[in-house]
Amino acid sequence: RYMGQGLPFPDLIQEGNVGLMRAVDKYDYKRGNRFSTYATWWIRQAITRALAQKTRTIRIPLHMTERIRQMYRAAQLLEQNLGRRPSPEEIALEMDLSADSVRSMMDASQHAIALERPVGDDGDSEFGDFIEDQDSPSPVESATQHLLQETIEEVLSELTPRQSHILRLRFGLGGGEPHTL
What we know:
Shape: elongated
């Protein structure tokens, strides 16, 4: 039931064992409940909490995870009744929430995409290759900067070595810090 949701099978078993141990600690036979019924609840809770906390790249608080689960349950029931996928407004009406909160829960429930994920049929490029780096200069800016440096070097080569050295120091040309005279 819980396989394929992000945790390996041995981890699911371990989380179920944690829930079982909690049930053993909390069980009170004087209340008249059967232990198997009581333990089942604790095991399910431990597994669902582990799935909520350990499977996402960006962790969502448990109360929000439970609200998202309720939202998808309501959406599934609406889809069966309406015969189509319900809109966020219809889900909000069913859950007595605002449409904006339903949209934010839908956004929060989306999983992160790995930048190293292969893209294309041959898989020779990665998703991160197509995301623009805002800090790096554009090719036009790089070419303009390179041409400007070449022009400055040409002009400085026509001066005497002393004049060239003074201008380089004064304006920080060649990667150095500008100096005062």
